[in-house]
Amino acid sequence: MASLLIKNGTIVTATKTLKGDIIVNNGKIEKITRDSESFSGNIKTIDASGKYIFPGGVDPHVHMHLKTSAGYSSDDFISGSKAALFGGTTTLIDFVTPERGQSIIEAVNNRKVEAENCLTDYTFHVSPVEWTENTSEELNWCIIKEGIPSFKIYMAYKSSIGLEDEEIRKVMEVIAKSGGTLAVHCEMGDAIDVLHSIFASEGRLNSKYHAFSRPAYLESEAVKTALKLAGDTGCTLYIVHVSAADSLSYIRQAQSMGQKVFAETCPQYLLLDKSKYLGNFREVAPYIMSPPLRKPEDNQALWKAIADNTIQSVGTDHCPFTMEQKKLGKDDFRKIPNGAGGVEHRLELLYTFGVLTNRISLNRLVEITSTNPAKIFGLYPKKGEIAVGSDADIVIWNPDRGKIISAKTHHQNSDINIYEGIEIKGSPEYVIKDGKVIIEKGKMINDDIKGKFLKVDSGINS
Ligand code: URP
Ligand code: ZN
Ligand code: ZN
């Protein structure tokens, strides 16, 4: 017996736009039809006339409850996933970041406990933060036993979690052999540390120096190194939060040579620029993130790279902090926690500034925010698709209902919103997860939900 009927909407997938009614049963899409009359009656029916129907968003890059020297990022898995749902995102990919000296297995198990109240479905990228005699075995354990074939290494943050190039090579060799994917934070960590020391010795510790200490060429040089190592080892690469035009040239070149490399950017690198670093501490601190915001020319280059498929995925790098936490670095930018929230705004920002400005089509919006992240990380077609058999994670999009973004009204747990005052058009009218209506007319009507940990079948026999 069907549980939900969505009638008269325009279904938008990565490849198709069609009129059709969706019948949901047992948390899955059971049927897509032009003739749903025999199903109406005593099942919940939503009239989606004038609305678009998207597969639920998949955000491949969020940091809920991330431990930092300024305390945890201010969204935990409950508040962060609630904000995600309000924005039309029904699947999150977060991270497992062990302490050096801690086993990856222990860190994965602990993280699963931290995430167990997540309202959306979720999985992780696992970060090796050092190379030890156990790393190879632990990475294979993640893939084979845990169903986590995605990893992430940091080329920055060398003193805590960043890896040396030779360690990266070893990690890549293991992942290449086992068929996983390696996400990489590309910034040359040693060079950044040198700039930090020089700036400190010259007393240049004002918040604006954060961006000067992380110039674009240190990102693009790291991209070049990561591509070379991945090419040598045959490892599939996913370059996170690309912010600089020069990085795109290297990525484009590698892709044209047939290298398996995917690229991600984030709304902040498409829509905001380094002018945010002009001002006093309170004005600048919200935008302290790594990599930092770049020039307007970089924004334009990133939009072009989405259009020409150099970039396949848009995540948020959601990592919010409160102003109180940011203040820890008031007199020394090196102590400002890096990161900003955005999980709630990804779809509405890309719809407003991508689709409505004709930079991307509606299908491309769906592809970069849902279908491609699901495909790249092994979640497709359960996630990222409107098709018979897919999970009934569905967004009914009202193209007309807009708002002004503000920390006063958002659901992210922070008094900061980096998109404060921006007017958007279009928003999720209904958000459906596992066939249950969670958001209705922009209000959460059901928070008694629990997300699932998504195990990816590696196809390798254990
Ligand atoms: O500034 C950022 N991006 N913070 C979150 C951690 C990371 O580097 O992705
Ligand atoms: Zn990063
Ligand atoms: Zn991140």
What key phrases describe this protein's structure?
single chain; 462 residues; TIM Barrel; binds N-(aminocarbonyl)-beta-alanine
Describe the structure.
The chain has helices at residues 77-86, 104-114, 135-144, 165-178, 189-201, 209-212, 216-233, 245-256, 267-271, 281-284, 296-307, 323-326, 346-355, 362-376; strands spanning 4-12, 17-25, 28-33, 44-47, 52-55, 57-59, 67-68, 71-72, 89-96, 121-126, 150-154, 181-185, 236-239, 261-265, 313-314, 394-404, 423-433, 436-440, 443-444. The longest helix has 18 residues, at 216-233. Helix 4 (165-178) crosses helix 7. The strands form 4 sheets. Strands 1, 2, 3, 4, 5, 16, 17, 18 and 19 form a 9-stranded mixed β-sheet that branches. The protein has a 5-stranded parallel β-sheet with strand order 11-12-13-14-15. Strands 6-9-10 form a 3-stranded parallel β-sheet. The protein has a domain at 56-376: TIM Barrel (Alpha-Beta Barrel). The chain has 14 helices and 19 strands. The model has no long low-confidence stretch (mean pLDDT 97). The radius of gyration is 21 Å and the shape is globular. By secondary structure, it is an alpha/beta fold. The relative contact order is 0.18. One zinc ion binds next to loops. One zinc ion binds at residues 185, 240-241.
Q: Could you outline the blueprint of secondary structure elements for this entry?
A:
Layout: E1 4-12, E2 17-25, E3 28-33, E4 44-47, E5 52-55, E6 57-59, E7 67-68, E8 71-72, H1 77-86, E9 89-96, H2 104-114, E10 121-126, H3 135-144, E11 150-154, H4 165-178, E12 181-185, H5 189-201, H6 209-212, H7 216-233, E13 236-239, H8 245-256, E14 261-265, H9 267-271, H10 281-284, H11 296-307, E15 313-314, H12 323-326, H13 346-355, H14 362-376, E16 394-404, E17 423-433, E18 436-440, E19 443-444
Helix pairs in contact: 3-4, 4-7, 7-8
N-(aminocarbonyl)-beta-alanine (URP) binds next to loops.
